[in-house]
Amino acid sequence: MSTATTGSPARDGEPVTGGPADSPFVRACWRRPVPHTPVWFMRQAGRSLPEYREIRAEVGMLDSCRSPELVTEITLQPVRRHGVDAAILFSDIVVPLTAAGVDLDIVPGTGPVVAEPVRTLGEVDRIRPITAADVSYVDEAVRMLVAELGQTPLIGFAGAPFTLASYLVEGGPSRTHSRTKALMYGAPQVWHALCARLAEITLEFLLVQVRAGVSAVQLFDSWAGALSEADYRRFVMPHSSVVLAGLADTGVPRIHFGVGTAELLAAMGEAGADVVGVDWRTPLDAATVRIGPDRAVQGNLDPCLLFAPWPVIETEVRRILTQGQVAPGHVFNLGHGVLPETDPDVLTRVAALVHEASAR
Ligand code: 1CP
């Protein structure tokens, strides 16, 4: 493979030769031919890796996200270990919220906890827009990583307005998202003001990552599956569309992912995605029918399957590769993040199997 990079966007015709923009991962996102199906794992960096746990034993989660050196090391760990086709920036969806002045912490064993939940217009107004300077540590980490990664693409990411709003309105993780929905249905003007502000913050956070050199972005709307399609289209999609449309001319593919989104797959594509992430509940061939021919798919091994005996895992990986061939582009992944108890050697073996079984 040539090492030449052309800064030109990979979209609409002109092939880009060499560099991460010509990697199997980015090519699959653009529905171009690939030498093998690319694979990475959501939450590949993190608690399943002993080398991660060792680093984190001494540093808090948000402090590690704000240290470009630690972010670089933690992001590279799964790339070295598993031979995956892409790295994902080590950060968290709540990092831009802290930069916007929200008082929150990531509590071990719980997740993000917000000191003062946001439920009124006055509280929305206190969340300020961010500038690149507010997240300069992210810019620095991405630049360091791009230099280290060479041909391997780096994925940037952010949380989508609904999923971020859910943490802000609930004050922390929620199973039902009941307060979030109460605000959405009961005070739609507050809801839309909150999501508009979050879309603005998310777009700037992603643009910082794109300007610093990420090769793709993923917008995580992890909890959007809690909504009906009608409510998704009315209350959420317009805001996620602002984010995705704001990235349309950057030349990097946009992945849009949520859990339990079988009924939302078409809408999540229409929101402005190049790749739609699919959880394990919908086979990729059926998902492709819903999403249509203009977008690639990403997924979708059940993370719990990694605890099954190897022959069971192998059968499932091969099934997903076969069903993924129906899609105009397929990036192999899990249907949601790696669970902390996962044996990392199994992930390495899955990555190797995906490469070997899909080699063309
Ligand atoms: O101490 C620790 O290690 C904390 C665990 C942890 C980690 C490793 C949290 C707290 N965040 C992260 C990193 C992280 N978060 C990454 C980078 C790692 C990688 O992918 O390789 C990413 C992409 C995220 C994104 C994220 N954070 C999402 C969207 C993805 C998803 O899994 O759906 C969400 C919903 C969060 C919130 C969050 N942060 C942390 C936890 C435990 C949670 C979930 C809490 C809940 O259940 O609501």
Describe the structure.
The chain has helices at about 25-30, 50-55, 60-65, 70-80, 95-100, 120-125, 135-150, 160-170, 180-185, 190-210, 230-245, 265-270, 285-290, 310-325, 345-360; strands at about 85-90, 105, 110-115, 155-160, 215-220, 255, 275, 295-300, 330-335. It is an alpha/beta fold and about 350 residues long. The chain has a single domain (about 10-360), classed as TIM Barrel (Alpha-Beta Barrel), CATH 3.20.20.210. Strands 1-4-5-6-7-8-9 form a 7-stranded parallel beta sheet. The chain has a two-stranded antiparallel sheet with strand order 2-3. Helix 12 (about 265-270) links the parallel strand 6 (about 255) and strand 7. Helix 7 crosses helix 10 (about 190-210) and helix 8 (about 160-170) packs across helix 9 (about 180-185). It starts with about 25 loop residues before the first helix and ends with a helix. Coproporphyrinogen I (1CP) binds near residues 42, 56, 112 and 157.
Across the major sheet, the strand order is 1-4-5-6-7-8-9
Counting helices, strands and paired strands, the structural category is alpha/beta
The CATH architecture designation is Alpha-Beta Barrel
- Give the fraction of residues assigned to helices: 40-55%
Overall 3D shape: globular
Give helix and strand order, one letter per element, not per position: HHHHEHEEHHEHHHEHEHEHEHEH
By DSSP, the count of extended strands is: 9
Strand content: 5-15%
Profile the largest sheet: 7 strands, parallel
| CATH structural fold name | TIM Barrel
Mean residue pLDDT: 95
Say which molecules are bound, naming each kind only once: coproporphyrinogen I
Query: Which stretches are low in confidence, meaning pLDDT under 50 for 5 or more residues running?
Result: 1-14
What is the number of domains?
A: 1
Report Rg: 19 Å
Count, helices: 15
Kindly report the oligomeric state of this protein.
single chain
**First CA to last CA: what distance?**
16 Å
What is the CATH C level class, in words? Alpha Beta
